[in-house]
Design brief:
The complex is a heterodimer of chains A (246) and B (340).
Chain A lengths: L1 E10 L2 E7 L2 E2 L4 E5 L6 H8 L7 E6 L2 E2 L5 H6 L2 E3 L12 H13 L16 H10 L15 H14 L4 E5 L7 H14 L4 E5 L3 H7 L2 E6 L2 E6 L1 H6 L1 H8 L5
Parallel strand pairs in A: 4-9, 4-10, 7-8, 8-9
Antiparallel strand pairs in A: 1-2, 1-3, 1-5, 5-6, 10-11
Chain B lengths: L1 H6 L4 H20 L2 H24 L7 H18 L3 H23 L4 H21 L1 H4 L20 H23 L2 H11 L1 H6 L4 H27 L9 H14 L5 H19 L5 H15 L3 H12 L18 H7 L1
């Protein structure tokens, strides 16, 4: 599904991502973990076109997307959520999802038509909001949501693109235990017919969802395998807990 | 959200506003010196055109005189040389403005914030330079004189009648702006204003949307500039000068960005004020307008219309969570900065 070769991103001499060869199989749920500053989000931004790599290439479903713009990658069936909640504060939840559904249809340029046309997305939008547990707030502006609800809306937006590849950047960051459990459930349900890449700090989430785990440190791949393998890897333990423990 | 429901959310109030607006537009030349009334509606459409960019897309164009002015010249030239009805001349002028906007938009939408403003200003200055140098066509410093008011042989020399001949064109332009804002496209540009990166992640090509709204805005600015040129019977360098770009920004911000109505109100106030000061022989136009502008921006950041709508909205707070209303219009420049 995704292959990267020799992926490098340099910021003023600092190599945030330093030669990553990643291979993510179709239909898997693949977690990217690593300490802060390991390059997870940078890698993520490169996969979705928000940052251009300094070196290397990215293939998604065999197509070279290295130089593509975010919207082009999005239209190839790749959806992402953002680590820092990224919504349209003034728009209602329903409008958010309608907008995402319209993005798929490619009819956003129709400036001569009434926005009542967006109503044909309404049923589908309600369904998606229901799926993430936000149906009762459909008419509220996104700015008025609680943190956990905003994260859920992020998921609804990503799902609205009916992506074949879903990239989730810390979907449970800052959530309470209850919301984390709900989110795990939700991701377990939505991964059914797609490939999911997850950046996550919460090991409980990784442990209960991921088929494969890639550990990054200082922009390089430190270890790769299933959750138990990776967790037992002494290099990983060192990276997380420091020399003294190992 | 309250403001939104008031201004755009539908219902009786919206229709009331529309009817009141129409009545005012129809009655205007009875209360206001007709040529000034024509100026008002022309500037109103110009300010609304700018609001598409400034209020709805979050782009501050500081070079919109380029489109108003180039259309003024083009409209004048078509009217003089072809003798066609002035509607056709205005349409031609607006098309010239839109055509000019294509390369300018293409080259400037990659920038945001102050850089976008500066790039648009630079292009407008370029147009100004061309208008000044190309004397054989534009008349240089003398301007383009003797633009006729042709309309199927009707005598429109009286400003009172000309107002009613021009009004339908302006109303059509205002309707177009309203249509654009309340279209699938309108939703997208608002989303771009709020969060461009997010819009891209949803598959929207932000730059293309910005180019399209820029060209549409230039077209409507061109309609306004054309009507203005026909109304005055000449097109001068003033029309492409940077102070014209500044004036329309002042109108939009003073009235209230992202509301359409606000731009209309702002234009009416500024035109009326300038006329009053000129008639009274007070040569302090800049100071007075500037002071009012500064006070409004400092005290009523949503502009005149935004503030009035908010006050009215307090009474309607009860039905807050009723129907999912469309967006609340943008309010302050800070919010635009955030959106970037």
């Amino acid at each position: 599904m995704i292959r990267t070769r020799g992926l490098v991103k340099e910021f003023n001499g600092f190599r945030a991502v330093d030669g990553v060869d990643l291979e993510i199989g179709s239909g898997t749920l693949h977690a990217l973990v690593g300490p802060n500053g390991a390059g997870k989000t940078t890698l993520f931004n490169m996969l979705t076109g928000f940052i251009n790599p300094s070196e290397g290439e990215i293939l998604i479903e065999g197509v070279d997307v290295t130089a593509m713009a975010p919207e082009q990658i999005a239209r190839r069936g790749v959806a992402r959520s953002f680590q820092i909640t990224s919504l349209f504060e003034e728009l209602s939840l329903l409008q958010h999802v309608e907008l995402a559904l319209q993005g798929r249809s490619g009819q956003g340029y129709r400036f001569w038509q009434s926005d009542k046309r967006l109503r044909r997305f309404r049923d589908e939008a309600h369904e998606l909001l229901d799926r993430v547990g936000l149906l009762s707030s459909a008419g509220r502006p996104a700015g008025a949501l609680s943190y956990g609800q905003k994260r859920a809306l992020e998921l609804a937006l990503a799902l609205a693109l009916s992506p074949r590849l879903l990239l989730l950047d810390e979907p449970t960051a800052g959530m309470g235990i209850e919301d984390v459990a709900k989110t795990i459930d939700l991701i377990a349900r939505i991964r059914e017919d797609r490939t999911v890449v997850l950046v996550e700090h919460n090991m409980k989430v990784v442990g209960s969802l991921a088929d494969r785990v890639t550990v990054l440190q200082f922009g390089k791949i430190l270890a790769e395998g299933d959750y138990d393998e990776v967790r037992a890897d002494p290099r990983v333990i060192t990276a997380y807990l420091g020399e003294s423990v190992a | 959200m309250i403001t939104a429901r008031l201004l755009q959310g539908g219902g009786a109030l919206r229709w009331t506003l529309l009817v009141v607006g129409l009545v005012v537009a129809l009655a205007l030349p009875w209360f206001v010196y007709p040529p000034i009334a024509t100026d008002m509606i022309a500037w109103a459409l110009f300010a609304v055109a700018l609001d598409l960019l400034l209020g709805y897309t979050g782009l501050l164009s500081f070079g919109h005189a380029a489109f108003w002015g180039s259309s003024a010249y083009a409209t004048g030239l078509v009217a003089i040389h072809t003798g066609m009805p002035f509607y056709v001349a205005v349409l031609a002028g607006a098309l010239v403005a839109a055509a000019l906007a294509v390369p300018i938009a293409y080259l400037s939408v990659r920038r945001t914030g102050i850089y976008f403003a500066m790039v648009t200003l630079a292009f407008a200055q370029l147009i100004y330079f061309v208008a000044n140098q190309w004397r054989s066509v534009t008349g240089g410093e003398n301007g383009l004189q003797g633009i006729p008011r042709n309309l199927f042989g009707l005598d429109l020399s009286d400003g009172f009648y000309f107002y009613y001949a021009a009004l339908p064109v302006i109303l059509l332009g205002l309707f177009a702006a309203w249509r654009i804002v309340h279209s699938p496209f309108g939703r997208v540009i608002i989303a771009i204003r709020e969060n461009p990166a997010r819009a891209r992640a949803l598959g929207y090509s932000v730059d293309r949307y910005k180019i399209l709204v820029f060209v549409l805005s230039a077209f409507l600015a061109g309609v306004a500039g054309g009507v203005y040129a026909i109304g005055h019977g000449f097109a001068s360098l003033q029309e492409v000068y940077w102070t014209t770009s500044g004036k329309v920004v002042v109108m939009t911000v003073l009235g209230g960005m992202g509301t359409l109505w606000g731009a209309v109100v702002g234009a009416g106030i500024i035109v009326q004020l300038e006329d009053y000061l000129a008639t009274a022989g007070i040569d302090a136009n800049g100071i007075v307008t500037g002071a009012i502008f500064a006070i409004t921006v400092l005290l009523f950041r949503k502009g005149i219309w935004g503030t009035v709508a908010q006050l009215l909205g307090r009474r309607r707070r009860d039905d807050r969570d009723a129907e999912p209303g469309p967006v609340r219009p943008a309010t302050t420049t800070e919010e635009h900065a955030d959106a970037r």
